[in-house]
Amino acid sequence: MIFPVSHLYYNYSMNVRISPDSATVERAKGILQGKQRTNFFSSLMPFLGPAFIASVAYVDPGNFATNIQGGARFGYMLLWVVIASNLMAMLIQTLSAKLGLVTGLNLAEHCRNNFPKRIVIGMWLLMEVVAMATDLAEFLGAALGFNLLLGVPLLAGALLTAISTLIILGLERYGFRRLEAVITSMVGVIAVCYIIETVIDRPAWGKIMYHSIVPQLAGTESLLLASGILGATVMPHAIFLHSALTQGRIVVRGRRQLTSLYHYEIADVVIAMGIASFINAAMLIMAAATFYEKGLSHIATIEEAHRTLEPLLGSGAKWFFSISLLVSGLSSATVGTSAGQVIMQGFIQRRVPVWLRRLVTMLPALVVIGAGLDPTRTLVMSQVVLSFGLPFAIIPLAMFTRRKDIMGEMVNKQITTILTGVIATLIIALNIYLLYDTLF
Fold it and tell me: Is the N or C terminus of the chain more exposed, i.e. has fewer CB atoms within 10 Å?
């Protein structure tokens, strides 16, 4: 059955078309048309959601691993990397959102339509590897969360994660707003946990201010962790997903309404990524204040951090840490599944049942758990793998959003294209250095 475009919302986990939350859409259109007079914060509400779903990728368990290691080993030194990474994320996710809402197609679909078939297949295979590396981090993190909070074995925790994510994804059949509300609430839980953690650990605010703006590195290991932080923050699958989340959510006609919608999407990105930035910074600050400042720079794993928090800060800190890790793993595993479906459908116009994708992408995590590998080190390395996939998302995004034949009057300004190119160049340079250091 064919529906009018303005009444579509795409269910990316099930790959079926469903009716959207009409009340949210109609309210948004009324605000854009000037028919509804509300204060600024009330007018924002219908537009908030897509960036919060994408932001989950920026606070997943991989961030716990890289930020805890970075803070424990180097104190507050790498805080500037967290800040810079999140500023990059704001720009990139804004462009991704714009591509979807202006063109009605997501990034993967634009790649399929504009690149030769061989390149499309190669990009799809690469993004599937990236998706598996993403799921590895998410499943390991959620399994660790279940293990630390409930004492269940890691394998049982992974199975509980699979079941939980399928249940959360099932909310999409009732409309996009419910899933957005659940994911946003989960991000809120993580933020609250780290607000409490930050109050408890009493960090050195002077050092925080200094290292937030002064770039510093201390050798190859710090560069590796900086790259891991970057890979854990700016994530390829979130770039592809965000363009899909906006492509049919609210459809408007005319330059004026489209520009207004884009401005609201920018606000969505700034708020969501701002919260994600705070959470990432709080993770590193907690590790720096609790471990590095107390001479415990040897703390290198999430499990060690969990065990050490109680004698240093009390049992409450341990519980808040476990809850935030579990919620992070569950929410990011849910979003990762949706992103995987978007990537497959966009590149090759194929889909698989969501339970099958969930089963296949959880296999690497089960192998790691079964082999007894160090979960935290595996999480860090998975984030480095993700950083290698970033150019293949950022470069096409910059190419398409700078083309007037695709974007029309919403084409990027020259300064935006230059900034995106600088970000892509920086990431590629880091990857080349890391590859050289690893092989030679």
Answer: N
Q: For 263, which DSSP code?
A: H
In the block, residue with structure tokens 């009330």: 42
DSSP state, residue 13:
T
DSSP 8-class letter at 254: S
CATH number at residue 341: 1.20.1740.10
User: In residues, how long is the chain?
Assistant: 440
3-state SS, residue 83: helix
pTM: 0.83
For 100, other C-beta atoms within 10 Å of its C-beta total 25
Mean pLDDT in order along the chain per 10 residues (440 residues): 34 42 75 71 82 85 78 90 89 93 92 93 88 77 83 83 80 73 86 82 88 85 78 79 86 81 91 90 87 70 60 67 84 82 85 71 72 69 71 91 91 90 82 64
321 token code pair:
């840490």
Nearest to 197 by CA among 296, 310, 48, 295: 310
How many distinct structural domains can be found in the chain? 1
| Per-residue CA distances from 385 to 87, 100, 190, 250, 404 (Å) | 21, 26, 25, 34, 33
